[in-house]
Amino acid sequence: MTEIENKRISKFLSLILRHQPENIQLKLDENGWADVSELITKSAKGRMHFSFEDLEEVVETNNKKRFAFNEDKTRIRASQGHSIAIDLDLKAAQPPDFLYHGTAEANISSILENGIEKRTRQHVHLSADKETATKVGMRHGKPVILTIRTKAMHEAGIIFFLSANGVWLTDFVEPQYISK
């Protein structure tokens, strides 16, 4: 499979498994899992053709580990980033002292005043390193990396989760925990 084809399938999976499974009448369970055979069949009916081997390659080579199989590879789901109501069955975790949030320069004044909101997603996404946060910020414009005082947040009782692909999740980051 070409890199272009891999990226095309990955973008399609992000749409279907995170936001709009109804586009191909795909059923996700309460934890966001979809049957792999059903995904392949219904995707083909929607004119997005790929094999199980193609799907395996996308899951294995995605640098952000956006997707995961269950143990016997009969079910697949997005690791995080859903705008639909699902329960990823994540366990609360103690974050490191600091995490990072990449955003566009145009968003800074609003964030410093109002905090970081999850908006249409289920959680705010935070990165463990500045490099990842920079890549995230670049998708939205000129990147700015914010440092989040997560130890202080955790000590204040704010809950964090760590997704299967290493993204830290929380519900909201208040302005007092953010540094530019």
Please provide a written account of the structure.
This protein has helices spanning 3-19, 36-45, 52-61, 108-114, 130-138, 150-155, and strands at 34-35, 67-69, 75-78, 99-104, 116-117, 124-126, 143-148, 161-162, 168-170, 172-173, 178-179. A 3-stranded antiparallel sheet has the order 1-3-2. It has a 3-stranded antiparallel sheet with strand order 4-7-11. The protein has a 3-stranded antiparallel sheet with strand order 6-9-8, with no helix packed on it. By secondary structure, it is an alpha+beta fold. Helix 1 packs across helix 3 (52-61). The radius of gyration is 17 Å and the shape is elongated. It contains 6 helices and 11 strands. Strand 2 and strand 3 (75-78) form a beta hairpin.
Q: What is the overall silhouette?
A: elongated
- The helix content, as a percent range, equals 25-40%
Multimer state: single chain
Low-confidence stretches: none
Which features characterize this protein?
33% helix; 6 helices; alpha+beta; 3-stranded antiparallel beta sheet; 180 residues; 11 strands; elongated
Explain the layout of strands and helices.
Blueprint lengths: L2 H17 L14 E2 H10 L6 H10 L5 E3 L5 E4 L20 E6 L3 H7 L1 E2 L6 E3 L3 H9 L4 E6 L1 H6 L5 E2 L5 E3 L1 E2 L4 E2 L1
Antiparallel strand pairs: 1-3, 2-3, 4-7, 5-10, 6-9, 7-11, 8-9
What would a concise description of this structure say?
By secondary structure, this protein is of the alpha+beta class. It has helices at 3-19, 36-45, 52-61, 108-114, 130-138, 150-155; strands spanning 34-35, 67-69, 75-78, 99-104, 116-117, 124-126, 143-148, 161-162, 168-170, 172-173, 178-179.
